[in-house]
Amino acid sequence: MEETNFVLLWKEHYEKIEASLAINKRLLLGALEDKAKSSLSSLKRLKTTGIILSVPYLLFLGALLFWAVTHYSPALFYFTFSVAAIFIINIKALADYIKHLVWVNNIGYDGSITNIQQRLNKLQLSIISHARIMCLQFPFFTTFYLSNKWFPHMVGWGYIVFQVALTGSFTLLSYWLYKNHKMESLNKKWFRKMIAGSGGRSVAKAIEFYREIEEFKKS
Amino acid sequence: MNPADKPDLFLSVIESNKGIIYKIVNSYCKQPEDRKDLVQEIMIQLWKSFEKYNDNYSHSTWIYRIALNVAISFYRKENTRQKIAQPLKESILDFADINNAQEKEANFNTLQQFISGLKDLDKALMLLYLEEKSYKEIAGITGITETNVATKIARIKKLLRQNFDTINQQ
């Protein structure tokens, strides 16, 4: 078949269909009124909720930190250090929520395909990488209650071993999650299986598509 | 644009270009249920962008950009979409004459099958080529250079020809 025939074949087929296509105006106008169904709107709501919830949480952490710093004594070392770390990580989370919301609001779909798809992909990857930063706060939830007043000299060896094992395992888990949330790990079957339930498939798809766009831009 | 005129103006633009939306949806979605959802998502995005419509582009170019972007993103967000999209009983775009729509041609099916098998971005290129868009226009819609458009289309057409040859030989 000559190449021009493909165009003709396409044209002839759709000419018939186009002539019989009808717009259901009632349904169309109904859909336009109900903009909430738009897929990016749900992401906007999620990010807005994240911001709304983050602010009081950060104020609470900030107040704790302020109190700890203004009343500082060596007994408060663990508490101050842990709350400070959780506070900083959650500040980063709030910044991410705001950044994502700005990005979502700036994506208009009317740009060129490569440009818009790259921006959407960047957003998707950034949302997922945000999760790995959040993992870093885990160990600090196992240390904030400790005090130099009684730890380690006033507790038995059993508690020391328990505490070291608890904080150590949370640190290892955080570090492992942080380190393995990367493109290279997605080639590993065990990792894909492990993160499949928490958006891992989306990461794999996003990365694959990222590569596809890069490839597409090359001649 | 007078806000009161917006729905009528929008409807008339959609009416004149409904074929574009239908063809894109048809090429990107295999399942009829998905098609209805995709039509709705495209319409919402078109409506949202309608006020910002830049008349440096034709309505058709504007629709191609939005519809292709939505279609490509739609497919990659299957999981998210299932959670937010309500199942539609009817479709915004429907056939007035169902008999015409049911006509199938073997060659067309082969072509459609070939298109379905292409990667999302190549699919967009092929659709624009079949719609007889100039390389310049395709470059503008996709965001790659005209030379790149020409090279890629030539490559896809070569594959398509091979595909048809194989089927004809069988």
What can be said about this structure in brief?
Chain A has 219 residues and is an all-alpha fold. Chain A has helices spanning 3-20, 25-33, 39-70, 77-106, 113-135, 157-180, 189-195, 200-217, and one strand spanning 21-23.
Structure description:
The complex is a heterodimer of chains A (219) and B (170). Chain A has 219 residues and is mainly alpha-helical. Chain A is 74% helix and 1% strand. Chain B is globular. The chains are: A mainly alpha (219), B mainly alpha (170). At the A-B interface, helix 1, strand 1, helix 2, helix 3 and helix 5 of A face helix 1, helix 2, helix 3, helix 4 and strand 1 of B.
Low-confidence stretches of chain A: none
Determine the number of helices of chain A (DSSP H or I, runs of at least 4 residues): 8
Strand segment count of chain A: 1
| Largest interface (C-beta under 8 Å) | A-B, 52 and 78 residues
Task: Please give the structural blueprint.
The complex is a heterodimer of chains A (219) and B (170).
Chain A: H1 3-20, E1 21-23, H2 25-33, H3 39-70, H4 77-106, H5 113-135, H6 157-180, H7 189-195, H8 200-217
Chain B: H1 6-28, H2 32-50, H3 59-76, H4 78-84, E1 93-95, H5 98-101, H6 106-117, H7 120-130, H8 135-142, H9 146-169
Helix pairs in contact in B: 1-2, 1-3, 1-7, 2-3, 7-9, 8-9
Name the features.
heterodimer, A: 219 residues, mainly alpha, 8 helices, 1% strand, elongated, B: 170 residues
